[in-house]
Amino acid sequence: DGKIYFVKIHAPWEVLITYAEVLNIKVPIRENDIPSTVENPLDCVLMPFRLPENVMHPEPDYFTAPFSKDKQELYLINDESTFFSPSMRNRIVYYILTRCPYGTEEGKKKFGIKRLLNNGTYSAAYPLHDCQYWKKASDPNCDSERYTLYMEWARFLRFYKEQPLDLIRKYYGEKIGIYFAWLGFYTEMLFLAAVVGLICFLYGLFTMDENMSSKEICDPAIGGEIIMCPLCDQDCDYWKLNTTCASSEYSHLFDNVATLFFAVFMGIWVTLFLEFWKRRQARLKYEWDLVDFEEEQQQLQLRPEYEAKCTQKKKNPVTQEMEPYLPLTSQAVRFCISGTTVLFWVSLIIASMIAVIVYRLAVYAAFASLMENTQTLEPISGLLTPQLATSVTASCLNFVIIMILNFLYERIAIWITDMEIPRTHLEYENRLTMKMFLFQFVNYYSSCFYVAFFKGKFVGYPGAYTYMFNRWRNEECDPAGCLIELTTQLTIVMAGKQIWGNIQEAIVPWICNWWGRRKARSNPENLYSRWEQDHDLQIFGALGLFYEYLEMVIQFGFITLFVASFPLAPLLALMNNILEIRVDSWKLTTQYRRPVAAKAHSIGVWQEILNGMAILSVVTNAFIVAFTSDMIPRLVYYYAYSTNDASPMSGYINNSLSVFQISDFPTRNKPKMNPDNFVICRFVYRDYRYPPDHERKYLHTMQFWHILAAKMAFIIIMEHVVFIVKFFVAWMIPDVPADVKAKIKREKYLTQKILHEYELEKLKEKL
């Protein structure tokens, strides 16, 4: 009759203890007798950030051992109804449901709740929340953990408080607990990077007036007298250098000595972050009884989809049991299709990036012509140069394309991974992670790589410009350098992604829930049951955490790979993450059904991805400082080519802009008008070529080769110094804290001793 029926599944004590042994669940055997670590002298300062003890540590610290049904008297079983935590209970029930047979079809066994959900027999399967999030349960025996989590963790006004990780783990399971532990730790470490980045930015701000390059550009007697070659072919006019005065002043904010310091600092910071996280993770592994929990246990648990789709069987060398397997030929075909699809989509991103570059080239000429010939734009022409106008509009267009491609590829990636039929849940997640990350990496960072390493590097020179597809003249950097454009690109993509991400995560589920509950709101509470309320909430899904990690890892790339161009990136990330923790906790506690608890002893494959990005970040930042910023050419001029001892940087602008004779322009490039009858013009970008009256005219001067050699030497030195410091720091910091090692040894010793004594007692009784 179209009505929804609910079936409540409850696991009695006998079922729980049977499957606790099957799943090797660790339970308390004795209270921890190792005294806690020495008091922290900063405890009194940190008091405002602390949560109440009963919220932070809802249970005492115990030594634990794997559960055995035959040795129940060994364990501290005070109350059977509360002995297993809610997350353990829902994990056991879900484990049974995923393997429960319900019929046969063509001689094949049909089993598992997932299959019943897929074919529409059941519309949903979920563990219940223990109470309403805004009020405690009426049952006095209920802990009302959801209410506690909402009041102490999920409200934005608690943003300055620590997270109740033990309570999160108890209610949601270790996998969600470890995500919030990692996100909280990452946010804490960002605070240091944000402070140093802000200091570097303020240094640039306070030294703006001392910047000799922008002084010379803005000086009417210097910049006002330097005539620049046209920005586009035929339609653009000659222009004066001092029209870029404002942008050259702003570029000093990010292109100064502090940039180099910050690039080196972030190379070391990222190592400290990863090493200290390993220590934090090791402590959590011990505290959450995950020391002996290995992924092998998960490897033995086949995905129900794998068991259903694989008809052939072979003996497992570990369990010595017959189990389904996918033939090698079938695997090879599936991997070929998968690889081809991923390559096609990556090619699609590169094609879309080329389309944006073509847009830049086509619109650049229009902007240049418009800004020179339109009087109404005169007041802002100093700030909004053609290069900057093109960069801002192209960045916005690029961001829209990124979001559209993301939306489409997510569905493709899941379909490809399903088609591969991975053997275990761990394998499924790892494969999907690598596909999604590869795509997102190319999607989000390709435009930044273009501006940082390709834009303005292959433009030729007046009279011999290089053209894309023989039609559009390649882009030149602003006379103040390409770094300010990289900063613009980074800010728009990073800030846009963060704002869009928070809208998607918070507002969309809230609107969906509000709309779904519109009929139920008129019903009294006694007619709107707990399970109906939970049914009307959004589904967190098996890949819910995957998207959270992906979002944070992409952000991690922005603050490490391109941080030399934007010292405020860690501050933006810190502000976002403070909001992100509360948005994630709020939506999980109030807007989503309770997820099925799952175990995890680390952040998994994401750790390897972060390590890879940490190494790549040293290389990219070295190249940004050398090739994108103007630092190396300025230093070479300062030490080797300056002729003014009183003011060594004076004359730098004149020295770095090569001279071109206008009569040498071919017809394709020559402006239609030259009312002032200029004879020479300067290259729009930094270039070192011989003047037109030299026998080697327009060829590179020796200064060009000196600067190139200095850039290469700088890259090699910076990379080696940072890598040596990184590896030394990693070697110095042990992955597992000494007190955690002692506790692990003590627990193993105690477990063996108690089991030995127990066996002796049993033997005595028999004798």
TrEMBL record:
Keywords: Cell membrane, Glycoprotein, Membrane, Transmembrane, Transmembrane helix. The keyword Membrane applies. Residues 168-747 form the Anoctamin transmembrane domain. InterPro entries: Anoct_dimer, Anoctamin, Anoctamin_TM. One of its GO terms (molecular function) is chloride channel activity. GO terms for cellular component: plasma membrane. Residues 2-165 form the Anoctamin dimerisation domain. The keyword Membrane applies. It is found in: Cell membrane; Membrane. Its main location: membrane. The chain crosses the membrane at residues 179-206, 257-277, 342-367, 387-409, 436-453, 553-574, 712-733. It is a multi-pass membrane protein. Belongs to the anoctamin family. This is Anoctamin.
